[in-house]
Amino acid sequence: MRKKITYIAIALLFSGFLKAQEKTEMVTDRPDQTESASVVPLRGFQLETGFSFERYDSYTNNTSYNSTLLRYGLFERVELRMGLEYLGVSQSFDGMDFDENGFGPISVGAKFFLREEADGLPQLAFLTTLSIPKTGAEVFENKNLGADFRLNGEYTLNEAMSFGANLGVQWSGVEGDDSAVGIYTAVIGMNLSEKIGAFAELYGFLPSEGKNDHRWDGGLTYAVNEDIQLDFSTGVGLSKVSPDFFISLGLSIRMP
Predict the structure, then answer these.
(1) What is the pLDDT of residues 148-179, one digit of tens each?
(2) Helices (H), 62-180
(3) 31 lies in some domain
(4) Cα Rg for the chain, rounded, in angstroms?
(5) Mean pLDDT across the stretch 128-151?
(6) For the domain that residue 186 is a member of, what is the CATH number?
(7) Which pTM does this prediction carry?
(8) Can you give the pLDDT at residue 178?
(9) Per-chain mean pLDDT for the chain
């Protein structure tokens, strides 16, 4: 009887170990601008970081030397998020150069999983992000609380393709600017192989005051293994107020 109990206990422990080793596919929120409708699994931790460069004209360049997003699965349907950036801006006009570097505002937030894809309806999640006042370098800081709210959707088109979209609104928190800016994104994702993915995306910003900013981008992802992903993306602006072009390189790591 004692041996039988021992065998049962070992079997239960072993099955629990195997279950703990099972991993879902890693889903990141980069390099596209469309936030996924997935959350990090319970007690999971994910780091997503990268470099980006924007050229607006021959006089103005914006650089994000490091943009890092930390994601943690607090509950089965809720993840916590924190974002950090080290930024740079370079301007040249009438023979004078202006260069500033420093940290941007710290952002915190949460993503809430709403529903699985079923019955012809998409998978949905809701994302909230707050930009904390006076937490960055003076040239980049926002004096007031900034906010970004988005509804994220995903829909499977076939075994190799999916469609994703975001609709939302944001406030910059910049002193003297309390106007709302609408956000839209639409992306087609494709699996080119077991390790390589690609995407093409249209997105934009629709301010209540001023001109709309529409952009297009596309890129590739490469899964080094089930816990590490590399990415590359590039794009162009479609409006007069948009950057001429931009490029991004990134790395995402899922912790055991």
Answers:
(1) 999 999 999 999 999 999 999 999 888 777 78
(2) none
(3) yes
(4) 21
(5) 93
(6) 2.40.160.40
(7) 0.86
(8) 79
(9) 89
**Dist CA 30 CA 231 (whole Å):** 8
**Does residue 209 lie in a domain region?**
yes
Dihedral over Cα of 73, 78, 82, 88: its sign: positive
Residue 124 DSSP symbol: E
Residue 22's pLDDT is: 55
From CA 26, how far away is CA 121, in angstroms rounded? 22
Residue with tokens 């080094």: 224
- In contact, 173 and 144? CB cutoff 8 Å: yes
Residue carrying structure tokens 């162009």? 236
Give the pLDDT confidence score for residue 4 in this predicted structure.
46
Angle (CA) 127 101 252, round 5°:
40
For residue 164, give the DSSP letter: E
- Assess if residue 66 is contained within a domain: yes
Report in angstroms the alpha-carbon separations of 201 from 17, 58, 236. 40, 25, 11
Write b or e for each residue in 218-248: b if 16 or more Cβ atoms lie within 10 A of its Cβ, otherwise e.
bbbbebeeeeebebebbbebeeeebbeebeb
17, part of any domain: no
Place of tokens 């994104």: 185
| pLDDT score recorded for residue 97 | 78
Domain count along the chain: 1
Q: Tell me the residue range of the domain where 188 lies.
A: 24-255
CB atoms within 10 A of CB 98: 11
Q: Can you tell me the distance from the alpha carbon of 242 to that of 51, in angstroms, rounded to the nearest whole number?
A: 19
Please give the average per-residue pLDDT across 123-149, as a whole number.
93
